[in-house]
């Protein structure tokens, strides 16, 4: 599912206009992004948790030349699925 399809489905389920659904989805994405930029964690009960992890600087290899290169330290967004989401994706077999 792509973003446009998500917005269309959101509009259909909430009986919102496409424009209002687009604004709502974009606002949620903006809020999560802003909070992660600040280093905060965003938890949505039952769905999951968005957080930021730090990656230390390290050495790597240029695959084309084999030369050793320095890879700078960076931050990376992370998502950990919540129990309800995991259970929905992996239903127990009877």
UniProtKB/TrEMBL annotation:
GO MF annotation list: DNA binding
InterPro entries, alphabetized: Hist_DNA-bd, Histone-like_DNA-bd_CS, IHF-like_DNA-bd_dom_sf
Record SMART domains: BHL
Keyword DNA-binding attributed: yes
CDD domains, A to Z: HU
Keywords, ordered alphabetically: DNA condensation, DNA-binding
Keyword Transport tagged: no
Gene3D superfamilies per UniProt: IHF-like DNA-binding proteins
Transmembrane segments: none
Family classification: Belongs to the bacterial histone-like protein family.
The name this protein goes by in its record: HU family DNA-binding protein
Species per Swiss-Prot/TrEMBL record: Massilia hydrophila
């Amino acid at each position: 599912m792509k973003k446009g399809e998500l917005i269309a489905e959101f509009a259909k389920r909430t009986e919102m206009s496409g424009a209002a659904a687009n604004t709502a989805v974009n606002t949620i994405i903006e809020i999560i992004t802003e909070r992660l930029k600040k280093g905060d964690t965003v938890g949505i009960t039952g769905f999951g948790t968005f957080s930021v992890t730090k990656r230390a600087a390290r050495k790597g290899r240029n695959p084309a030349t084999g030369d050793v290169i320095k890879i700078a330290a960076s931050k990376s967004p992370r998502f950990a699925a919540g129990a309800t989401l995991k259970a929905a994706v992996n239903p127990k077999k009877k």
